[in-house]
Specification:
With 301 residues, the protein is of the alpha+beta class. It folds into two domains: 170 residues, Ribosomal Protein S5, domain 2 (2-Layer Sandwich), CATH 3.30.230.10; 119 residues, 2-Layer Sandwich (Alpha-Beta Plaits). Helices cover 35% and strands 27% of the residues. Strands 1, 2, 3, 4, 5, 6, 7 and 8 form an eight-stranded mixed beta sheet that branches. A hairpin with a 2-residue loop joins strand 3 and strand 4. Helix 2 packs across helix 3, helix 2 crosses helix 4 and helix 6 runs antiparallel to helix 7. The two termini are 29 Å apart. The model has no long low-confidence stretch (mean pLDDT 94).
Length: 301
């Protein structure tokens, strides 16, 4: 049996504008998704799929890949997504699902599914590594999105990523001197990224605005002082708020917070980033936001 691991990710800059080619800064998380596999030459052409969430069984499926039929499952909609994705793997691979082997796959998501750290993108990267195919193309035809999360999973590093005019990215050293002052707070809900992307796409945007986010990303990467970092993130947050015509998460939930609050990824859910202040734990706990990570707890850098 073989094993592969892909880390989760946090998108620190550019959010929706990544789709239109804005430069993104993203970092890997310590938590990710494990993937184990076994192939048996038994002539049955079956796929046995077991998906665990934090070591608890979530999805089981048996698939006949000669006819691409689900023979049994406990969650039909999720099994359909797995079938579609594995069918895409077959179309891209020179060897996988081409004979009559039986395949046994087990996945284990190490973080709660509502954390928004990349349950689908880590799966795409693990499958692509197993099948020796292009993870970005597999992700495009199976899920969509800008692909930055694939780059983080693939490189297991902080990255600068750009999706247009073509995909390009580079590993970067992002370990700011003030990192131990940074915290991440979960908003107790999962935001639908596709819904947010569709809303973003419905609005007119200029190349100038896309370029402004790329410029902010470069400046944020080079910050040496927490004060400068905070100021840039406040500018970033306000620009997206003005464009989407949606209040910032600070305006909605943390108006009296004495420091910056920065949305990460799709607005309205998942994690936000902030910095420590006197009594910060009591402040967030008092508002029923009880899941707080420090940099060293969550970020794998």
């Amino acid at each position: 049996m073989g094993e592969i691991f892909s880390p989760g990710k946090l998108m620190l800059t550019s959010e929706y504008f990544a789709i239109d080619g804005a430069l993104v800064l993203a970092v890997p998380t310590k938590l990710g998704q494990e993937f184990s596999f076994k192939e048996t030459n038994d002539g049955k052409s079956l796929i046995f799929w077991e998906a665990y969430h934090q070591n608890t069984l979530w999805l089981k499926a048996v698939i006949d890949y000669q006819n691409w039929q689900i023979l049994e499952t406990n969650i039909p909609t999720s099994a359909e997504f797995i079938l579609k994705t594995l069918k895409n793997v077959q179309s891209l691979s020179n060897t996988k699902f081409k004979s009559n082997f039986t395949y046994h796959f087990t996945t284990n998501l190490q973080f709660p599914a509502d954390y928004g750290l990349g349950s689908s993108s880590t799966l795409m990267n693990n499958l692509a590594e197993w099948a020796v195919i292009d993870p970005f193309y597999l992700n495009t035809i199976s899920l969509g999105g800008s692909g930055y999360d694939i780059a983080v999973a693939k490189e297991k590093s902080a990255i600068l990523y750009q999706s247009k005019p073509e995909i390009k990215y580079e590993k970067v050293n992002f370990s700011p001197s003030f990192k131990n002052e940074l915290i991440f707070i979960h908003l107790n809900q999962k935001q639908d990224s596709r819904e947010g992307i569709n809303f973003y796409r419905s609005k007119n945007k200029s190349q100038k605005l896309v370029d402004e986010f790329s410029d902010l990303t470069r400046k944020i990467l080079l910050c040496n002082e927490l004060e400068d970092f905070s100021d840039l993130l406040l500018i970033h947050e306000q620009k997206i708020s003005d464009f989407l015509e949606i209040p910032t998460v600070k305006e909605r939930f943390f108006a009296d917070c004495p420091v910056f609050i920065k949305s990460l990824g799709a607005w309205g859910g998942d994690f936000v980033m902030s910095s420590k202040f006197d009594g910060f734990k009591d402040y967030f706990w008092g508002k029923d936001f009880n899941t707080i990570f420090e940099w060293s707890d969550l970020i794998d850098l």
